[in-house]
């Protein structure tokens, strides 16, 4: 379970980007975070995995306080937080298998990793997960030879190789075409159920948030102003979150939700 209490993030002397945020994510729930640019969505995810330092507040994962960790305890905690990035963050010159096994770097020794000598059980799990998401046939291909959707599947499998307690996804479909982006969203929803894994997705596409996640959290200017089911995410909620700015793909939301839920 992820428990966030009174989370504040301030850069320098500017107004806080996150202003006393409270959030709980548990079970195998798939939660989307929506809001206009600058609402604090990416900042929230980066505070959770400590890519940036929270200014104040509490972040607890399965009872362990993350916000105060440093050194080896922080590295160990990060192993339990899988991350899927908008830009894939793959090493292009390495093969798909090598990129996937990078998810085990927090668990093996330095010389094992340097020599790319991973335990047989890690390799077996990698093949199993790659087969599950449909990329096993690319195991020996370089990452830069893949399409965007295939590259994102590699990123998902790499994150799952950490055997995480939670999966974070920062705009995982923003670099993909509409059909592929829906496939990735559907995949993450299915994996959350199969692995009993909570998933927290920062997403601009309101239609996909409605169609593929069971709970929507809306941020505006660093504050949570909506937390509910897609059915409750109506025109009034959109107006409150986006303040008159047209939400991305808002007009197609009902169509996608009816066809894919």
Write the layout of secondary structure elements.
Blueprint: E1 2-9, E2 18-25, E3 30-34, H1 41-48, E4 56-61, E5 64-65, H2 71-78, E6 81-85, H3 96-101, H4 110-114, H5 120-133, H6 148-160, E7 166-170, H7 178-195, E8 199-202, H8 206-212, E9 215-220, E10 223-228, H9 235-242, H10 253-260
Parallel strand pairs: 3-8, 3-9, 6-7, 7-8
Antiparallel strand pairs: 1-2, 1-4, 4-5, 9-10
Subcellular location: Cell inner membrane
Keywords: ATP-binding, Cell membrane, Membrane, Nucleotide-binding, Translocase, Transport
GO molecular function, one term: ATP hydrolysis activity
3D structure, described in words:
- The protein is an alpha/beta fold.
- It has 2 domains: about 1-40 and about 165-260, P-loop containing nucleotide triphosphate hydrolases (Rossmann fold); about 90-160, no CATH class.
- Helix content is about 35%, strand content about 20%.
- The protein is built from 10 helices and 10 strands.
- It has helices at about 40-50, 70-80, 95-100, 110-115, 120-135, 150-160, 180-195, 205-210, 235-240, 255-260, and strands at about 1-10, 20-25, 30-35, 55-60, 65, 80-85, 165-170, 200, 215-220, 225-230.
- The strands form 2 sheets. The chain has a 6-stranded mixed sheet, sandwiched between helices.
- Helix 5 (about 120-135) packs across helix 6 and helix 6 (about 150-160) packs parallel to helix 7.
- It is globular.
- Mean pLDDT is about 90; it is low at about 250-260.
Share of helical residues: 25-40%
For the largest beta-sheet, the strand count, sense and barrel status come to:
6 strands, mixed
State which percent range the strand residues make up. 15-25%
- The CATH topology of the largest domain is Rossmann fold
Question: In the residues, how many domains can be counted?
Answer: 2
Report how far the terminal alpha carbons are from each other: 25 Å
Give me the strand/helix succession. Answer: EEEHEEHEHHHHEHEHEEHH
What's the name of the CATH homologous superfamily of the largest domain? P-loop containing nucleotide triphosphate hydrolases
Low-confidence stretches: 251-261
Q: How many strands?
A: 10
């Amino acid at each position: 379970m992820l428990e966030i209490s009174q989370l504040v993030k301030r850069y320098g002397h500017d107004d806080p980007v996150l202003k006393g945020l409270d959030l709980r994510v548990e079970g195998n729930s798939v939660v989307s975070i929506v809001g206009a640019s600058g609402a604090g969505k990416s900042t929230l995810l980066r505070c959770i995995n400590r890519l940036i330092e929270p200014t104040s507040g509490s972040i607890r994962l399965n009872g362990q306080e993350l916000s105060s960790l440093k050194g080896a305890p922080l590295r160990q905690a990060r192993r339990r937080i899988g991350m899927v990035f908008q830009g894939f963050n793959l090493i292009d010159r390495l093969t798909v298998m090598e990129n996937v096994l990078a998810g085990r770097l927090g668990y093996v020794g330095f010389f094992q990793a340097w020599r790319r000598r991973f335990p047989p059980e890690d390799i077996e799990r990698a093949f199993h997960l790659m087969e599950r998401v449909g990329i096993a046939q690319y195991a020996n291909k370089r990452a830069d030879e893949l399409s965007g959707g295939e590259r994102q599947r590699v990123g998902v499998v790499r994150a799952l190789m950490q055997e995480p307690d939670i999966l974070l996804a920062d705009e995982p479909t923003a670099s993909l075409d509409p059909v592929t982006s829906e496939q990735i969203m559907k995949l993450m929803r299915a994996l959350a159920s199969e692995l009993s894994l909570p998933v927290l997705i920062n997403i601009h596409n309101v239609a996909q948030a409605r169609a593929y996640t069971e709970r929507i959290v809306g941020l505006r200017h660093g504050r949570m102003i909506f937390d509910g089911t897609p059915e409750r995410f109506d025109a009034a909620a959109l107006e409150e979150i986006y303040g008159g700015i047209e939400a991305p793909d808002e007009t197609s939301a009902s169509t996608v939700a009816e066809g894919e839920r």
